[in-house]
Amino acid sequence: MSTYIDQTLKDLKAKNADQPEFIQAAEEVLTTLAPVVDAHPEYQQNAILERIVEPERTIMFRVNWIDDTGAVRVNRGYRIQFNSAIGPYKGGLRFDPTVNLSVLKVLGFEQIFKNSLTTLPMGGAKGGSDFNPKASPHTPGKRCSDGEVMRFCQSFMTELFRHIGPNTDVPAGDMNVGGREIGYLYGQYRKIVNECNGVLTGKGLPFGGSLVRPEATGYGCVYFAENMLKTKKANFKGKVCAISGSGNVASFAAQKLVTLGAKVVTLSDRSGAIYAKSGLSLDDIKAVMELKGVKRGELSEIAKQLKGVKFFPGVNSWQIVDKVDCAFPCARQNELNGDDAAYLLKHGCKLVAEGANMPSTPEAAAAFLKAKILYAPGKAANAGGVATSGLEMSQNAEHLSWSAEEVDSKLRGIMAAIHDNAYAAAAKYGHKGNYVMGANIAGFTKVADAMLAQGI
Known about the structure:
Layout: H1 3-15, H2 20-30, H3 34-39, H4 41-45, H5 48-52, E1 57-66, E2 72-83, E3 89-95, H6 101-117, E4 124-129, H7 146-160, E5 169-173, H8 179-193, H9 213-230, E6 240-244, H10 248-259, E7 263-269, E8 272-275, H11 282-295, E9 310-313, E10 326-329, H12 338-346, E11 351-353, H13 362-371, E12 374-376, H14 378-381, H15 384-398, H16 404-428, H17 435-453
Parallel strand pairs: 3-4, 3-5, 6-7, 6-10, 10-11, 11-12
Antiparallel strand pairs: 1-2, 2-4, 7-8, 8-9
Helix pairs in contact: 1-2, 2-6, 6-17, 7-8, 9-10, 9-15, 9-16, 10-11, 12-13, 15-16, 16-17
């Protein structure tokens, strides 16, 4: 490893000793950049690595809101504006008890390179709160009501609005922030600033949203994997695919895989995993979408309704299959560990495409790279969502609405370009087929060169 990279990592670990998730993410990226850093001494001369691992701005704020009983609740809100060298900050908002500064710095740091890979002019950011819409603060076992979610979102936006704008920072949804939450957030923003603009993406179709946006991350992940298979002159027909998660990303990835002829055998959530040895049908997947998106229920509630489906409580999707060709981790960070990777490889897995942000632990990623299977990191494979958010920004700026076919065609083209750029970057620096290195290098060089051009 380059001495410059080594010293940067040592300094970063000393400054951020209390942020293990961020250290993990930075190490994963920086350790792959040695070939390009060695070839470009100007990066060290201009301290590009030191600058790129430090957020341009970190915002933390209090969120007061009133629950249905009239009690005052207090949460913490964040926005990490990491890098704007190639465009306005862009990245999702996450509402979950696991949200903290370290986790959001991981996601914001990854977003820099993911957005760079899309070929669209977007910087990297992330934000959210430790608010949990899935847990009522006053009634154990119940979710927050729509009214409680609305009041929280309004209070959250009352602080956030001053830090964002269509040409400054354009948030979107992420974990537990879907169409409902984006609608409440946008309504409050519009009321405060007295403007209708493209400040948020993932909006509803009646007020500036884009067709195909809900499907985009899942579809895009499959399109990326499809391009990987083409390098082996293969396709998805007959492939056995295991998927984790059951939200938008997982469900739409499953839907697209089935339409391409694959057999999707697993989905999961916090209650456990379902396994369909003969494969889930499109009707099964539709039922899961209704359960998760409308009823906001758990997979344990639906397994008995689906023919040929077994439910396994308290487990993930990985070690319940007896054969698997492709794996799509689409749930959450560090969900797939070294033991899971060993199991998948032992049972025939030849492709892993990450639909979630950093779902594979370092041990799992190392195992996939050592086995030389087709392995795509999230910053490349799950960039379809933010790419379509970028397309939504373009539609808002032009006051236009494109057809679903047009958006999907552009998404296919973007995912193909991301694949080809990552593949070419890896090959250029002597690591052909290593999508982790290729994605990191391709994403990094575009941002680094923009930083050089704009001075200190």
